[in-house]
Amino acid sequence: MSTLNDLNQKMTKYRWVICSLLFFSTTINYMDRNVISFLKEYFCSPAGFGWTNSQFSYVTAFFTAAYAGVTVFSGMIIDKIGSKLGLALSLILWSISGIGNAFVGTSVSVHVIIRSIFGVGEAGNFPASIKTVTEWFPKKERALATGIFNSGSNIGAMISALFVPWCLIHFGDASGWKMAYILTGAIGLVWLIFWFLLYDSPKKLKEKGKVNAEEFAYIHSDDVELTPEQRKAEAEGKKEKVAWSKLLRYPQTWSFFFGKFMTDGIWWFLLFWLPDYLKKQFGMTTQEVMWPTFIVFGIAIIGSVFGGSVPMFFMSKGWNVYKARMTAMLLIAFFPILLLLTQFFGDKAVFGSYSMYLATSVICIAGAAHQAWSANIFTTVSDMFPKKAIASVTGIGGLAGGIGGVLVQLLAGFITDLYASKPETAYMIMFTVCAFAYIIAWAIMKLLVPKYKLITDL
User: Fold this and answer.
1) Which fold does the domain 2-448 belong to in CATH?
2) Which residue, 139, 142, 143, 141, is CA-closest to 222?
3) Distance, C-alpha 62 to centroid of its chain
4) Cα 335 to Cα 215, 268, 307, 330, 356, distances in angstroms
5) How far apart are CA 438 and CA 335, in angstroms?
6) Are 307 and 147 in contact (CB under 8 A)?
7) What is the per-residue pLDDT across 172-221, written as a single tens digit (0 to 9) for each?
8) What are the Cα distances from residue 427, in Å, to 42, 229, 278?
9) pLDDT averaged over the chain?
């Protein structure tokens, strides 16, 4: 124990600087992404664009499809060119296209095009971030680091929940939606300055004196599980490309694929449709939905960080990394089932003025559970794949999650139009779909990969 304490006292902590950079990029990513959810009422009103719910769902679905389709390619590209350049190019594209969204008028088709380009840019954030965590953290810290940077998705959504309605109120609807896109898009370009100043590989920053020998050794402490060739390649920071045909042969890849396919769409649903639910279920105004949505995404931060620490508890008991991870994910998967109670608690005839608070509390639990799940499912990739394949496998999972997200967006648009006169029924159907997604996903993942097996033949 004293040796470990001595090591902790001696080594630098620069890996947490890197984690903070990823946290801010993810915050910007989700802030920009979530702007549109607070513009739905204006876009779908006769005084605004006059869109239907289905037309709004086309815009979000095409964004999701572009995001998903490009995530696979972005993962491969980032594995080839590295995280530093890959994440920077990604952010530049999504920031510029986000700003451009303010100048496209009212046409659904044009919004679909610009939002799709925006999705192409945003697709690089998570493959680059997961790859960076893998390069900078040992396995036992990766879920925590992922949970911390992934909590930026909640912070970004919280900022949108307050900032976008403020823009609509302060500038007026006709100008406010444009200002929301312009101002949120511009922030990402500021982040680039810090990224280029502070980020590099562990090896290069060790040479510059930012990382000492103790921290460098700690970062690479899992390399004992690798072959000599893999250890040499990863210590030197070599950028290699792994063919999809190889990755798709492994059940570990398909486990991640189906885990993301089943659950990513649930978060997309909360991001894009929660304000609409609050307005239709409880008759709230744009200004009134600010704080409930802010609280939902704020509570989700707890899930993101706490979820990453749960497997560390089991690992401290001597469990192998996969058993600890999957046990934590099983426990987490039960919490979204509470969504079945959302409309029960949301019944104003039964609970009166408390109904909104009770229904929102249930959604808070589900949102926190999703983020806890997300912190762990991302880390299953780095638990089993070598670093050179991380971004590619993460990209494949992103494709799967995006496909699931598209289906959920289109289903939400179809159901809310079908039950336009009974929105409480429409959202009961959607919450039921969301409730069982995680436990089904866990079962599929466990079936595909029943036991831990590190991939060493790539």
Assistant:
1) Growth Hormone; Chain: A; (1.20.1250)
2) 139
3) 18
4) 37, 18, 12, 10, 20
5) 9
6) yes
7) 999 999 999 999 999 999 999 999 999 998 999 999 999 999 999 898 88
8) 20, 53, 10
9) 88
> Which of the four pLDDT bands, split at 50, 70 and 90, describes residue 347?
very high
Sign of CA dihedral 32, 414, 273, 55: positive
Residue 235, pLDDT above cutoff 60: no
**Per-domain boundaries in the chain:** 2-448
Residue 271 in contact with residue 61, Cβ under 8 Å? no
- Tens of pLDDT, residue by residue over 440-451, are 999 999 999 998
Locus of tokens 């707890």: 302
Is 167:31 a contact under the CB 8 Å cutoff?
A: no
Q: Is the pLDDT of residue 234 over 60?
A: no
Q: What is the C-alpha to C-alpha distance for residues 237 and 125, in angstroms, rounded to an integer?
A: 20
Q: What is the pLDDT of residues 144-169, one digit of tens each?
A: 898 889 889 889 988 998 999 999 99
Give the pLDDT of residue 232.
56
Cβ 356 vs Cβ 292: under 8 Å: yes
What is the distance between the alpha carbons of residues 69 and 396, in angstroms, rounded to a whole number? 9
CA distance 176 to 451: 53
Angle subtended at Cα 19 by Cα 18 and Cα 20, rounded to the nearest 5 degrees: 90
Contact present, 306 and 372 (Cβ < 8 Å): yes
